[in-house]
Design goal:
Number of strands: 13
Distance between the termini: 85 Å
Number of domains: 2
Number of helices: 5
CATH superfamily of the largest domain: Oxidoreductase, molybdopterin-binding domain
Oligomer: single chain
Radius of gyration: 22 Å
Strand content: 35-45%
Largest sheet: 6 strands, mixed
């Protein structure tokens, strides 16, 4: 039979446990509610807007990736999760060898990728020596998680370009566009003319 003290301790424990669980639930919803990001996709079949949560519900890929900056700072390799960029292109008519891919972020940074790069053709480097190594099975992702947590603001929250695969390797950091809010599939000639002009 329980004494008064045992019942009091149990009651306090129960109240603390309930408060903790409610806090986790509310914090999770508050965190999710803060991500009101939209991605604009443009391609042969028009333009489409996807929310962060619609992207997160798409088929995803998980793999290892990392990068080094122009001043030699190494990030990773870490485990990333995201949607293959090729799958996103398919939402607006796909990408062909005659196309290139423009990726934009709201801070004005943009990057142009070739068809081959969208399909994972990048130079890769050993994380220990930074020597070039053969990369097999690399995928270009629109990533949203690093090591099972959403990106921080500094890491590119909520969406960034990620180059990931089964091997632990690095790629050049300028490809890893942060805060991606717009992706466009364009014919190569059109893309080059606009870049030059």
């Amino acid at each position: 039979m329980w004494g008064k003290r045992s019942k009091s301790i149990f009651s306090v424990f129960l109240v603390v446990a309930i408060i903790c669980l409610l806090s986790i639930y509310i914090y999770g919803h508050w965190q999710n509610g803060r991500i009101s990001w939209k991605l604009t996709l443009t391609g042969k079949e028009g333009t489409k807007e996807l929310t962060f949560y619609q992207i997160k519900e798409m088929s995803s890929y998980q793999g290892w990736g990392g990068f080094f900056t122009s001043v030699g700072v190494v990030n990773g390799p870490d485990k990333y999760k995201g949607v293959p960029v090729e799958d996103l292109c398919a939402q607006v008519g796909g990408i062909s060898p005659k196309d290139c891919l423009w990726v934009f972020s709201p801070d004005g940074y943009s990057m142009v990728f070739s068809y081959e790069q969208v399909r994972g053709d990048f130079v890769a480097y050993d994380p220990q020596t930074l020597k070039e190594i053969p990369a097999r099975g690399l995928k270009m992702l629109l990533g949203y998680e690093k090591n099972k947590t959403f990106f921080t603001e500094e890491e590119g929250k909520p969406l960034r370009i990620v180059l990931a695969g089964r091997q632990k390797l690095l790629t050049e950091g300028h490809y890893w566009v942060k805060w991606v809010n717009k992706i466009e599939v364009r014919p190569v000639k059109k893309g080059l003319r606009e870049d030059e002009g």
